[in-house]
Design goal:
- By secondary structure, the protein is of the alpha/beta class.
- The chain has one domain: Leucine Aminopeptidase, subunit E, domain 1 (3-Layer(aba) Sandwich).
- 39% of the residues lie in helices and 20% in strands.
- It has a 7-stranded mixed beta sheet with strand order 1-2-7-6-3-5-4, with helices on both faces.
- 45% of the residues are buried.
- The protein binds adenosine-5'-diphosphate (ADP).
- The site of adenosine-5'-diphosphate (ADP) has 22 residues, from helix 1.
């Protein structure tokens, strides 16, 4: 028998709201926008390209300063810079794992991206954060398992002291949105 699944587009967790929207992350008005960056921090395609294009050169300049200070950003880590001309205070750059079959610690590294991004957000005092679907574009992570990791990690972090009140996933295409809505439905019904 097929498993009965219901989709969800939002979940209240303590005093935080975890929600899913379909759209372009560069159009969000939030305190912090998370970027699916690469270790070089020098820009790239996908969300990264869109953030640098719309945010302007101040973001790349700030990324260069981070590189000079601490070198490349490790997979699973996160660091904040200015958001330049975006309607946000900060961009939090995180580096997702390149998917390589699933046995190379990809789930752990992907969870680390969301955990570290939220640690940085709490340190900054951000009250609203927008996340893309890290690793499921150019880095090839299959969206169904990536959605489960992303949402369960963010839910686990949402109960921590100082967690942002709004945790919003901004999903670019319908397939990705549907996968996240199904994963959130499973998370919600699991209690
Ligand atoms: P990665 O290299 O981590 O896989 P990508 O940027 O290639 O990152 O893709 C991650 C996800 O972000 C994909 O689902 C892609 O469709 C989506 N994406 C691309 N541009 C945007 C955007 N402007 N806003 C939100 N999501 C986007």
């Amino acid at each position: 028998m097929a498993e009965a699944t219901s989709t969800l587009d939002a979940l209240e967790i303590g005093s935080s709201r975890l929600e899913l929207v379909r759209g372009d992350i560069t159009a969000q008005s939030v305190d912090a926008i998370v970027n699916a960056a690469n270790s070089s921090l020098m820009g790239g395609g996908g969300v990264d390209g869109a953030i640098h294009r719309k945010g302007g050169p101040a973001i790349l300049e700030a990324c260069r300063a981070v590189r000079a200070r601490q070198g490349r950003l490790a997979t699973g880590d996160a660091v904040a810079t200015t958001a330049g001309e975006l309607d946000a205070r900060w961009v939090i750059h995180t580096v997702g794992p390149v998917y390589n079959g699933g046995d190379a610690r990809e789930p752990e590294l992907l969870a680390s991206c969301y955990r570290r991004s939220l640690e940085v957000a709490r340190e900054l005092g951000a009250t609203s954060v927008a996340f893309p679907s890290v690793s499921t574009g150019i880095y090839g992570y299959p969206v169904e398992p990536a959605a489960a990791v992303a949402l369960s990690t963010v839910r686990e972090q949402a109960v921590l002291e100082g967690s942002p009140a709004l945790l919003r996933f901004v999903l670019f295409d319908q397939h990705t949105y549907d996968a996240y809505a199904a994963a959130l439905g499973r998370l919600g019904s699991a209690g």
